[in-house]
From TrEMBL:
Domain named HAMP: residues: 231-286
Main location group: membrane
Catalysis performed (reactions): ATP + protein L-histidine = ADP + protein N-phospho-L-histidine
GO molecular function list: phosphorelay sensor kinase activity
A Pfam family recorded for this sequence: HATPase_c
Gene3D superfamilies recorded: 1.10.287.130, 6.10.340.10, Histidine kinase-like ATPase, C-terminal domain
Gene assigned in the entry: chvG
Catalytic EC class: transferase
Transmembrane regions: 15-35, 210-229
UniProt protein name: histidine kinase
Domain Histidine kinase: 294-512
Amino acid sequence: MFSNFLKSLSILKKFLFINLVIFLIIGILTALYISNAKPNLIKNKTSKHIQIINNTIEHILRLNIKFEEEDIRKFLFSTRFLFQNLDRVILFDNQFNLVGDTDTLDLDPRSFSSRLDIVELEILDEEKSKKIVETKNINKEKTVSFKDVLTNYSWSKDYGKPFTFIQEGYDQFLLTTVKNITLNGVNIGYLAISENANDVKSAIDERKTFILRTAIFIIIVIFVFSFVLNRYFLKPIKNLVAYTKIIKEKSKKKTNINELKSRNDELGTLSNSLDDMTSELQKRISHAENFSTDLVHEIRNPLTSLKSASEILNETDDQSQRSKLISILNHDVQRIERLITDYSQILKDEVALSKEKMKKINLKLIARSVVDDFNNIYEAKRGIKIMLNDQDDQEEYFINGIENRIEQIIANLLDNSISFSDDNKKILVEIYKGDKDKIIFKVIDEGKGFKETDTKKIFNRFYSNRPDTFGEHSGLGLNIVKNLVELHSATINASNNVTQEGANVEIVFPKV
């Protein structure tokens, strides 16, 4: 179902959806990282607290300090070097009564330095101590009852182990660790130390800020990339798709991909290839439709003649008349057969041409081979001599082409010239280089020449001006030649000879 959902999305939507999924996965992993980072930082702080608590408890036990206010006050002053970087140290007896609190000591700011100088203690009355505590607790949003914390701690299953809790306000992140003090297996009191761990909060806030900035940056990058992807890639592809749909549906909507064709990137190349392919397909379709129409038209005439001759044949008893009608029937059948055979050959040629590839070939060698084959047949049969005249025997005439198709072109031209030539005539085949090193191929005969003023007509399908041999030729030979010549990016022209009787056909091949 998910795969079907993805398939139904456009490329842009797929891109955005996949990015959203990745973004959510990264967001979840980031949230897990942040949630784990805070406990890890607190754990590091707690380990330092535990070390200080253990050292403090060791001093209390070693010095045999009683959990009374006077002894505890002296102890706090004498061991203040243990509590560097701590904000507050509190001691309670085993009844949860406060016996020592650094917040109630009016100490010199240097008291918690590393100096071990003796500082004179100030005896504080209850009112002044309360005032100092209130002053130091100002701006604190919440005050935790240590008595409640100690009560819960004493009843918990982790009693005897250090216990850490936090007080988090708007401007502070207070970390407090509590542990009981035992002497000979008996609990004699509790020690709590507090540290303003704003660096933990700052570290978490910095990570959150960094992640937020990164997320915003990634969103902007995705947005920009999506815009570029849609504007310069997906939208042109949509235009190409619309173009192909219009062509497929034969819609009358105007299509214009010239803007895409003018691009110098892969989409421009694709647009040009697609347009060329579409034009070629349309040309082939039009060619096939016209060809089929012409073929139907050409077959209709002999069919009509066949029908008329067969009807008359059934009605007449005259043997001479029946012989003429049978001759007409045979002639029309041969004509239809010739048309279908040539048409079938053209279709086969078109299929073969789509599979064959051009390569560099020597036109002179191919022409010599074809000329020799024709001489072997027609010189003995009709006395017609075909002469190959290349201006320089040492010169090579290379073209880009398909070898068997070039043979077909030359053979069809020679066959056409022979059909117009009388016996014992000559046909000249010339190969030479023209302007800009173009290769010129000519077939010059001594036949009757062309009667048409416009010689371009002779290359049309089914065109044949042979009143004396009507029906013996399909009129497709020269049309096949023209199609093959155009396939090789060459041009073909026909004209009558100026200085002698006959005609010549000229093909101009482009320079390799």
